[in-house]
Amino acid sequence: MRKAIALLITLMFVMIISVAIGYGLSEMKKASKIAQNESILYKSSMVLEDILSILENSTDINSLLDDNASADLYSFFEMTQYLPLDIANEKVVLSLKSARSKLNINMINQKNELLFRNYFDRYMIGNNYVDILKECMRKNQAKDQYNNSFSSLFDKKPALFRNYIASKEHLEQINEFYTQEYGETNLKMVPFDTLFSFSEDPNEAVDLNYISSDVWELILDTSKERAQELYAGEGTYTSLGDLHLTQKEKKNLAKFKTTFFAPFIFVEIEIMREGSRSKLTFVYDIKKKRGYNFVFEV
């Protein structure tokens, strides 16, 4: 009996020590991960500083300040879609594109919301979806229009930001709610990645030289074939006459703020190191020489 008790006590001590070691290793792993992320963040900030300096001092970019430089801007983007670099002892891939190639989702208003509804209707998505989107844009809607929620979105997600749709992840939460609430899965078919951008300012103009065929389809309420036709003229438009729009298309286009020259660069920085990748994105204003909307992903 005494031997059995001693063996039991020994086993208990072994178990306690094993748990303590396991817990210690787990905490060490967490600490190591935190230290690794801090190192990645520090090195990424150094790369970002160098990239911002390059953008600010680039003669090629400064030459794009002329409002008539739309053709030069297109040529610039053609050459800078993929730029491998060595910066701060890091392997970096820099990509520069137009920051006005997508429609700011927060641009939905009473004047153009029917065009959004028509677009989603093509994917068999009900009108409730646009209403739910507008619930999350209270800052830009008519005063008191959405004091009372149309849906139960904020009952189920009370912490969800509701002044405007701030990011792709924010939209994904809204889409998740809509799919669960209405039992519709058609949102998976919508090309959100080429359709929408996310900005607090609903007055940002889209550049008609760079918008995707999906954006053309939405803003003109037109067919995919017609949208592809307009997209094929990418980089060649200087005025409304170049588009050869019908009266209906002109009327629809007038419901959005558009331009043929928007000197804003979407900067994507991918930093590659052994066993890991991190990505930085932001918008660079050529005229003001500043970046904003910074997003860092590890």
The level of helicity is 40-55%
- In terms of per-residue confidence, which ranges show pLDDT below 50 for 5 or more consecutive residues? 31-36
Query: Over the alpha carbons, how many angstroms does the gyration radius reach?
Result: 26 Å
Question: What would you call the structural class?
Answer: alpha/beta
The rounded distance between the terminal residues' Cα atoms is 58 Å
Please tally the β strands and state the result: 9
Tell me what you see in this structure:
- It is a single chain.
- The chain has 298 residues and is an alpha/beta fold.
- The protein has a domain at 103-259.
- Helices cover 45% and strands 17% of the residues.
- It has eleven helices and nine strands.
- It has helices at 2-57, 59-62, 70-79, 113-121, 128-135, 153-156, 168-182, 192-195, 213-220, 224-231, 247-253, and strands at 83-87, 90-98, 103-104, 196-197, 206-207, 258-259, 264-273, 276-285, 290-297.
- It has a five-stranded antiparallel beta sheet with strand order 1-2-7-8-9. A two-stranded parallel sheet has the order 3-4. A two-stranded parallel ribbon has the order 5-6.
- Strand 8 and strand 9 form a beta hairpin.
- Helix 4 crosses helix 9 (213-220) and helix 9 (213-220) crosses helix 10.
- The longest helix has 56 residues, at 2-57.
- The chain is globular.
Question: Topology of this protein?
Answer:
Blueprint: H1 2-57, H2 59-62, H3 70-79, E1 83-87, E2 90-98, E3 103-104, H4 113-121, H5 128-135, H6 153-156, H7 168-182, H8 192-195, E4 196-197, E5 206-207, H9 213-220, H10 224-231, H11 247-253, E6 258-259, E7 264-273, E8 276-285, E9 290-297
Parallel strand pairs: 3-4, 5-6
Antiparallel strand pairs: 1-2, 2-7, 7-8, 8-9
